[in-house]
Amino acid sequence: MNNQTRKFFIYTRKSTDTEDRQVRSISDQLAELKELAVKEQIEVVDIFVEKQTAKAPGRPVFNEMLLRIEANEANGILAWHPDRLARNSVDGGKIIYLLDTGKIAELKFPTFWCDTTPQGKFMLSIAFSQSKYYVDNLSENIKRGHRNKVKDGIWPQMSPLGYVNVKGAGIVPDENIAPLIKKTFEAYATGNFTLRQLHDKFNALGLSRKNGKVLSVSNYQQILRNPIFTGLMRYGGEIYEGKHKPIITKKLFDSVQEVMMRKSKPHSKGLKPFLYRGFFRCGECGCFITTEQQKGHNYLRCTKRKNPCLQKYVREEIITSQIKEEIKKVSLPLDWANWMIEENRKDQSSEIQSSEIFSQKIKDEISLLDSKVEKLMNLYLENVLSLEEYRESKNKLVNQKQLLKEKLSAFEKKSNNRFELTENFLKANIHMVELANEKTNEENLHLFKKVGSNFLIKDRTVLFEPRSAWRTLSDSGLFGGNSEQTALRADHIFASEPDFVFWRRGRDSNSRSLAGYRISSAAE
Length: 524
Description:
The chain is of the alpha/beta class and about 525 residues long. The chain folds into three domains: about 5-150, 3-Layer(aba) Sandwich (Rossmann fold); about 165-260, Putative Large Serine Recombinase, Chain B, Domain 2 (Hect, E3 ligase catalytic domain fold, Alpha-Beta Complex); about 330-430 and about 480-524. About 55% of the residues lie in helices and about 15% in strands.
């Protein structure tokens, strides 16, 4: 073939995530190839630039070039090296086939010799095979490195949504996205949202992919199923403990999985947002109390779906007034609260020993789980367990360990600040009478939920069971919302301190008394 009929395409390729390295590498290739074209007196018909890996077939620029060669627009290719053209068997086979059929008359490389003889094509196939071997070996090395990283508790890939990669620190929570991820879990755990509603609400709040694209409904499902946000890592079907900071607790994650299994849907879909809808049950038959609007007023009534019921309608504002009165009954006078705060502070010093015993017990349980995981590994290595059995058993133990670690962390945190929580509870209840009058109906309902449970309406009267510390306040019969009478009762009680001993924690092994565990639990 004479030089006047030699028409070539120049093909350059570089695959990397760093854009400036891409441009520089491609410019270097082009400079060398243009110099070779001048030296060989080759006519360059077109230049193709590709920024995509060649380890798998399907490169659009490469395929376009081959189509134009088959259309006889050129009969040769200039490239830096055979590995620029192919690093997989499919693309390598295409090049060799076009050489066999004469569609490609020449291949030119600055650093590699190739002609159309059997020997030349044999050498070219070896070059393609070496390129494929390099990719396969590199992939295996990367996978091995990833496996070693996850065993050390380090996430080996690009950080998931909610985290960012920090050099030397692995992945850390993204201060902007992590709170939205946590809220997403908390919202779905209530059972009041479908995935579609979750998608609409949190997309509107700005939750999106790292590249700025909108999250789909399936993306939310993937997020809610990913244990990485609890400090665990799922890799290769196996669960590993991570060293990164969790965004949510394992308990919250498990709650979300339960909701997802039930395919929970919102209960209020298509219903008017009445304040007390679904909140009360009938004190006579146990059915739910519903709300209806008549002549501009809201009325609460029993749905009467189970048995005949004689309960009558009651106006919503009457129920609201009763709720405020019940809240007032568990308010604390200033003198009482100050005395209890002082006693609470005295009891702090007696907790150290019992806390240490409990902490050590949990640590021993965690250590036992570690030894069980090690035994599982030995059983797998001895072929007693299959890989599937090993992974299933190990995942259960790792999950148990994570729950224990969270329990230990929560206990240590509570042991350090539960007396502070008790003091905050006492201070918060000092002026509850005034707060009940100042808050909105919605805020009072939220406060009422905190104070009690098992809410009923019977004979147009609100009934409920006070929770923990509030039960003690209610059962005492000392509070009725009248500040003057309450003050007189307080003076009488404080005049005889032994009569008031039930308010104190007591210096014994019972940690479920008012000024200790019970109030802190309620405050939480």
